Amino acid sequence: MPMPVYLDYNASAPMRPEAVAAVLEASALVGNPSSVHRFGRLARRALEDAREQVAAMVGARPERVLFTSGGTEANNLAILGAGRPRFIASALEHDSVLRVRQAELLPVGSDGVVDLAALAASLASDPRPALVALMLANNETGVIQPVADAARIAHQHGALLLCDAVQAAGRIPIDIASLGADFLSLSAHKLGGPKGVGALVLGSDLPFAPGQLGGGQERGRRAGTENLAGIAGFGAVAALAPDSLADQPRLAALRNRLEADLLRLAREAVIAGRNAPRLANTSAIALPGIPAERQVIQLDLVGVAVSAGAACSSGKVRASQVLAAMGFAPAIAGSAIRVSLGWQSTAGDVERFVEAWGALALRRQSSDLSAEPAA
Ligand code: PLP
């Protein structure tokens, strides 16, 4: 089999060499960043350099960047630490938002964009202080959300806004002040950094309940000796964000060609969120008649790695909640796969995918591919 093709950057991106080098370099640092001696000070310098790099990527003040173990912890920390009696979230949010506490869900249009009139009505209907969660770009469809407008509405009603920017970072420009976000979540591994490191960025000096207690690290907001190697790798990819942004038109051209080819091969294919502003690298493609999980397995057998838009738990295929929220019927939502490109993706990768997917579409009528997988 030729070299496998990786088209699952929204799950995790291959690490950039600069991030690998930064991780290795920081791994050689002996000291604890909290120690006062020279070894500690060297480690502290590396930590603060990375904090400045991450802060610069999102236009924040470095002291408002709080390193975490990833996007999940950042979202959890904001939701649990904000101390707001009400929690309102778009139906598009990641499980690391929706599973933390009961949310009042905001509906989504068929284009994959959240309904802001519903947000305004919801906030007006109940005066209790609220936290609103709205992601900047959706992980399944890539659809970009009107976060600045949502923040304005939230603030008019005395609410705070959490923006999960995990999928947007390095793919669209981010400026926390223009977004008006009170909390912004980031994760290093989606943009070519190491896995298991991220940040919660604060929009102001809001009081905030710490998530874990112990030593006074991260200004008392997140105790525990910092993951210095991971953080240094995160800083290195954050510093590369301008290069990554400059690469997006190339990715958009590849993705648009991919989508045009698929629609030519199978006119019944559906591309979710195609008419909304989207990330350049993401495509959510439904091929009705073949469950998403089955498509992913068949594509993997020929060396093409993509993911099921549909989440899979205990061997059962569940229709994508994001596509369901957009109003797609279960036959569509359950047959959607996600293709996501990134810095190493080439035209050759896209051709391999199109060829493999085209073969699937062709076999669909004549084979048992449309059958439900065995339990
Ligand atoms: N938020 C979004 C939108 C994501 O796509 C992900 C990862 O899939 C996360 C949060 C969680 O990030 P992490 O893997 O760093 O915990």
Describe this structure in words.
With 375 residues, this protein is an alpha/beta fold. The chain folds into 2 domains: 5-13 and 247-370, Aspartate Aminotransferase, domain 1 (Alpha-Beta Complex), CATH 3.90.1150; 17-239, 3-Layer(aba) Sandwich (Aspartate Aminotransferase, domain 2). The chain has 14 helices and 15 strands. The protein has a 7-stranded mixed beta sheet with strand order 2-8-7-6-5-3-4, sandwiched between helices. Strand 5, helix 6 and strand 6 (160-164) form a beta-alpha-beta unit. Helix 1 (17-27) runs antiparallel to helix 8 (228-239) and helix 5 (116-125) packs parallel to helix 6 (147-156). The model has no long low-confidence stretch (mean pLDDT 94).
Provide tags for this entry.
15 strands; Aspartate Aminotransferase, domain 2; 375 residues; 2 domains; Aspartate Aminotransferase, domain 1; alpha/beta; binds pyridoxal-5'-phosphate; four-stranded antiparallel β-sheet; seven-stranded mixed β-sheet
Overall tally of domains:
2
Main β-sheet, spatial strand arrangement: 2-8-7-6-5-3-4
CATH topology name of the largest domain: Aspartate Aminotransferase, domain 2
Number of strands: 15
- SSE succession: EHHEHEHEHEHEHEEHHHEEHEEEEHHEH
Helix content: 25-40%
The proportion of residues in beta strands is 5-15%
| Poorly predicted regions | none
Mean pLDDT metric: 94
CATH level 1 name of the largest domain: Alpha Beta
**Distinct helical segment count:** 14
What separation lies between the terminal Cα atoms?
29 Å
Using only CA atoms, what is the Rg? 21 Å
Structural class: alpha/beta
